[in-house]
What does this fold into?
Amino acid sequence: MDYGLKYQSIFYNVFGTEVSVYIYKKDYEEAIIDVRTREVIIECNYQDENTPIIGTGAKVVLAVDTSQMTQYEDLLTSLEKEFKCIIVYGDIGIVFTGYSLCDLNERQFLAYASVVLQFTDYLRRLESIHFPSLVNAGSSTTLISLLNDALDMIEGGEDPTLLVNSTLFEERMDQGATDDFLMQTYFDNSIFYTGPTEYDDGYVSLNKALLSFGAHLYSYAGNRWVLERQEDVLRDGDWLVYIGIGSYPAPDVSESQKQVINKQDSEGGFDYVEMSQIIAYESGLRTLELDLKDKQLDSFVFNDYTVDNMISVPDFIPNPGTLNERQWYYHENCTIVGNNFAFRGMSSYIKWMYASNEFDDIVYAGLYYAFEIQFPETIEDPVSLNVSYKMSTDSVLPVDTVARMRFMIMVDGGPRSGDFLYYSYNYPDTLYLNDPGADYCSNRVDISIVPSTKYPLSVDMEFNLTDTLLWSGFGPPSSVWELLGKPIKQKFIIMFFPMAFIWTVETGLPGGPNVTTIMPKFQYLGDVQVNVANQKVLNKLTYYINEDFEKTEKIDIDFFDLPNINFANGLMVEGSEVGDLEKTENWVSRGETTPVALMDIFAMNKFRIYSRTIHRLKGTIRYNGYIKPFAILTDDNLKVNGENVQLILHGYSWDLNNGTYDIDAQEYSDEDVDLETIANSFGYEGDPGIVPPVPTGLDATINIPENQIDVSWDSVEGAVSYILRRKPYYDIFGNWVQAWQTVYEGPNTSYLDQFDYPPTNGESFWYMVLARTTLVNSAYSAPILRIWS
It folds into this structure.
């Protein structure tokens, strides 16, 4: 949108530095009006380190002759974003860009009045905006997409500039000079949803997304945006710069924006204003409690029917491996009419019709969806796949008929790929897994129709995947999970076919009655829910460090590295194939070479800052320059053990007229704190409710003549058992499957991994181990690799 300059004020402050305030109005093309400013203040509204968005605002106070007030009325009664304010400070250039907030403007009723105008960089105003990237609950979104949605809405279509200061990478991410985690980290959109169609606004979404990374988003230099991880503020290395991030260009390398200001510097130092400075002493952090907000998927099949994005398929029964997950498909004989909400008892639905009236052309012409589930490491409770959905038609329900609602579930991948889950009419309590023919293995739900019956008609079925079942193929009775090779994950395709009405007509002729079947022209499918029974995950982590302190901090975090795909929580990274998303596992940061879980990095940074007594500074300083959020202030008079205390600047209020900053800063320690240091200082003492340390000393020795690998690890105080996992595992059909599986669970600190047959020469074997108390598990150790040779 075009803005024209309407008001301007140019003055010199106490340093003799020129300050220019420009106020632009949308579509303004007339003369510029000079105004006099009594006060110009820029406020950096830092809340706390667990609130990633840092909004910045400006207050401009005009001195106005009330007899000329009419020419300022539009400022006081402005529409949203009708005015834009740009403030320039001397040779530094732009130090603020923001838009008017008419609901906070004020004026005095005096002969020479003050008119108070408020402007904001608009980050906090994202509270009333929803991001386009999150419209579909079943989709995945990159962090760069969320940032693009936010900045594009603020900038009004102009290309924003984003500076990034980060050393964080997941171990499988590209880590080149122009790579970062923004374009390589994916979120499951459903984590932002509180209902089928209700999801978080932009402000909440960004705060959720950034917290796990310890990253903050703020405006800087007026026309720039910065994403900076707090643990990297002292880094001298290059930053990355995106220009016009909406088109996802490769970022360029930019110089470091690190800012360190020392009070005693002869040039560029700062001074305290009178005796305003106060140093407070706060206790160091002993306990960090992270409440990880686990969110089990309400459904693996999402009801975000996006008609424009649906894909047609030619086969009534799609072949395994041909459908992408979380994508709706329809048969080419169907015409997708539309999708909507609230119809005949369905909260959301999709409507389709047929191009042909031939029964054989439409009986299996339906909708298709691929999804994946995860089995727990140990099957203690039955794992049931629950399927429910509703259907309706435009037809009046016939009397004395049966409505048949048909769907099928096919295994996609693994040793039984292409087989179907179904119940037989002859044995309704027995679950089968094989392929006796498409018509036979349709899961049909017969609903007797009586005159009082109304739409919608419902299906609600349960498939117990882990209890023993009677299998009509070969071999002894087994469970679906065992027949699938005891996988950690399994993909399925569910197929929804047209609802049919069936009734019997007595003819009185030889051969008996006729059975008549009709398919209504229009079909509605809605409120699909496919899930597994509730599963429990470790969702509370407790870290301890120094017993000399008493301070405990509790933090709620929505995103964390939860590998279970049955849950929406857990960041994702692209897998071996483009578009194939996998849950992230381990990360590196600050140049560390040993990957650890993201929550461990989060904890390490917390203890890096708070593992001793913290100095906090509140005061007023005078400084002729522009101080960025997270600048480092030092004072030679404030030392600990002979070293200057570094104070990281958080929030401030900058009075440009008087050249002063009201600041809030706290000590920032750049000490190295590794996870082992935290674990060794747990004060753990075998407390079963506290996360035990990760086992160390994991080792494995190959014994080729005996076809075995001897695995061992160090004991953990207070652990009652250990879980050892190996990748790959050997399924019942004699195949090596490249996935993790538990090979040992028990109290010993060693395990003899025996193979019935010699592995292939060159086969890679990975091992990792965790420690267990009676209540919680530690994280897994870093995997080790052994190659059979």
The first helix runs from residue 73 to 76. The first strand starts at residue 3 and ends at 12. Residues 297 and 569 are 9 Å apart (CA to CA). Helices lie at 73-76, 143-155, 202-211, 359-362, 480-483, 598-610, 675-680.
